Amino acid sequence: MRAWPNPLAPIGRVVLEFLAATGRVALFTAESVLAAVRPPYFLRLAVRQFLEIGYYSLPIVGLTAIFTGMVLALQSYTGFSRFAAESAIPSVLVVSLTRELGPVLTALMVAGRVSASIAAETGTMRVTEQLDALVTLSANPLQYLVAPRLLAGVLALPPLVLIADVIGTMGGFLISVGKLGFEPGIFLNRCLESLQTLDVVSGLVKAAVFGFLIVLMGSYHGFHSEGGARGVGRATTNAVMSASALILVANYLITEAFFSR
Amino acid sequence: MTGSAQAPAIELRGLVKRFGRKTVLDGMDLTAMAGDSLAVIGTSGTGKSVSFKCALGLLPLDAGTVRFAGIPRDELPSSGPQALMRRSGVLFQGSALFDSLPIWENVAFALFHTGSMRRAQAYEVACTKLAEVGLDERAANLFPSELSGGMQKRAAIARAIAADPEFLFFDEPTSGLDPITAATINRLIEDCVTRLRATTVTITHDLASARQIANRVAMLHGGRIVWEGPVAELDRSGSAHVEQFVHGRADGPVTAEPPT
């Protein structure tokens, strides 16, 4: 007699695979953090990675920030003018940018650039036996490859987000002053009056956490890639997807931690 | 860790390695005495490279023990595996040079990245080692992608011998090279082995390479060593497996795709 397939079996498989993947990521994270705090320290590599992650991300982050600020000013004006609340635009703009849009959009753009790059580079090293070669040369691949990048990611994202906040505000300023008729001095004053230390601090904490997640996901998927070029391609896609998803989840959790009453 | 003339330097006992349902190594035993140059031959896919990676701890074993100079690898003290790596030189099949580093830094990697040598001194040592394998200072400052396949192999050999190791492992040193370059690489390896007096294990399916580099040969088939003996006896081994391999015949006990 032919047995009917259990309809719950595929769900169970997915749950088990999810739990196993979570365990693997947790283990990789713990090993990477341990590797980062133990000598030897590859500071020269960390500096190089800081430039790679931070400095070379400036153009795309700046472009994203300025247009986000411009669109935010335009859209806020469209909505607020219905209630004669146009004067709130500077406050809304600067708070939205520093708390949410600056950190999240910066992180998503950097995730697309850096997570993909780390996963592709590490994945290629995996399939061409360069990771094995590191081990045979007495180097711990986590210490040599992951630790400097983690340090660089955590340190590079906060200044990048600060710059994005400023550029985004300038984008809003340009539209508000040039198109919507705001007085420049009044606009900037309102921005500064509305801004609280906690807005900036929460954005910077988010940035540091996002930097960690971006590097972690790129490294994890690169380290676990297999099957030649196709495997490296899959690792790259997975790195960007998982980093983006984790950024959004972490953003909610940090916002909850800072601002829930 | 230096062994006496007749002490086993590298011992593999009962190695078992499975990938899913496929058993690649099925109780493999192999011994290389101190100073031996042992070539492990076999058809593609028999697990030669897997055995080499298991011996070095790059792949976890399902069963079996690996001893270096009589000490089980897993029983080495915490710094032991790293210390063992410092005493070993490895040449990978695809050279495995680090793309992001110039050749000299590849060669001197273990000396100044994980060792205590200063950068300038490491550069000098790297240039000396590169000269030993026939590469000049111009090549030292190039990146791996700027070198030909043969030059990459030379650079990878220089990296393997950079720390004057006691154990040398070569995985398919001549694969993908033309016969003349392959012969040059073989001679280079032979010179290095003689000069360093290192215990050497070479994984190869190239008989010319095995004959030139090795003093002993072992044949791997079906996850086990089916014959082992001096290189001079390769042509009168009495083993049907070896005979088929030496004469390159399609028919015989060895199939192109090994049984799973």
How would you describe this protein?
The complex is a heterodimer of chains A (261) and B (260). Chain A has 261 residues and is mainly alpha-helical. Chain A has one domain. Chain A is built from 9 helices and no strands. With 260 residues, chain B is α/β, with parallel strands linked by helices. In chain B, helix 5 packs across helix 7. The chains are: A mainly alpha (261), B alpha/beta (260). Chain A binds chain B through residues 40, 42, 121, 124-125, 128-130, 132-139, 144, and chain B through 53, 56-58, 82, 85-86, 88-90, 92-94, 96-100, 109-110, 113-115, 159.
By secondary-structure content and strand pairing, the structural class of chain B works out as alpha/beta
Helix content of chain B: 25-40%
Q: What oligomeric state is this?
A: heterodimer
| CATH-derived architecture of the largest domain in chain B | 3-Layer(aba) Sandwich
Integer tally of domains of chain B:
2
Furnish the topology, listing elements before pairings.
The complex is a heterodimer of chains A (261) and B (260).
Chain A: H1 9-37, H2 43-53, H3 58-80, H4 89-127, H5 130-136, H6 141-178, H7 184-194, H8 197-223, H9 228-259
Chain B: E1 8-19, E2 22-33, E3 37-41, H1 48-56, E4 63-68, E5 71-72, H2 80-86, E6 88-91, H3 103-107, H4 109-112, H5 119-132, H6 137-140, H7 149-161, E7 167-171, H8 179-196, E8 199-203, H9 207-213, E9 216-221, E10 224-230, H10 240-247
Parallel strand pairs in B: 3-8, 3-9, 6-7, 7-8
Antiparallel strand pairs in B: 1-2, 1-4, 4-5, 9-10
Key features of this structure:
heterodimer; A: 261 residues; mainly alpha; globular; B: 260 residues; alpha/beta; Rossmann fold; six-stranded mixed beta sheet; four-stranded antiparallel beta sheet
Quick synopsis:
The complex is a heterodimer of chains A (261) and B (260). Chain A has 261 residues and is an all-alpha fold.
